[in-house]
Write a structure and sequence with these properties.
Blueprint (H helix, E strand, L loop, with lengths): L9 E4 L5 H11 L10 E6 L4 E9 L4 E8 L8 H8 L1 H6 L2 E6 L3 H6 L2 E3 L7 H12 L4 E6 L3
Protein name: GNAT family N-acetyltransferase
Length: about 150
């Protein structure tokens, strides 16, 4: 077994040809997630495998950060926050919203997201979060607000 305390990840945008590898990670750990070609995708990887991913869906005036995943064996070690810090320029490109699972709200607060009211969301996202909640997901709308 490897010593996970010595694990290091390099963070960078995904090369499009590697999209199937990200979808394999989702299929293994988060089957509802599926990366698409029209998204901007950032990854964290070791020398041998992709271990973290986050996607940005692009809209005209804003973006939605979605599909954040860190492999279960690497959680609670700061890799999620490190991934978000690494993609700071993407987060700043245009207003960036996310729907945080309630148990991850503190992670996003550390990454400079702020909780916002549903009525502060663009209309298309307000409809989407409403649909997700009807489906039973406990989600908090947030907006990236780095200084």
């Amino acid at each position: 077994m490897t010593d996970l305390t010595k694990t290091t990840l390099s963070f960078h945008p995904l090369e499009p040809l590697r999209l199937p590898l990200v979808n394999r990670l989702y299929k293994t750990h988060y089957p509802a997630g599926k990366a698409k070609k029209d998204e901007i995708i950032w990854i964290g990887e070791t020398a041998t495998s992709i271990e973290a991913v986050v996607r940005f869906q692009q809209y005209d005036d804003f973006q939605l950060m979605t599909g954040m995943l860190v492999a279960p064996q690497l959680r609670q070690q700061g890799f999620g926050l490190a991934l978000l810090n690494a993609c700071h320029l993407q987060l700043m490109a245009k207003p960036c919203y996310c729907f945080a699972f309630s148990h991850l709200e503190s992670l996003y607060l550390k990454a400079q997201f702020s909780v916002i009211a549903d009525d502060a969301l663009p209309l298309s996202l307000a409809h989407r979060i409403e649909r997700y909640r009807v489906g039973g997901k406990a989600l908090t709308p947030m907006l990236y607000q780095a200084g």
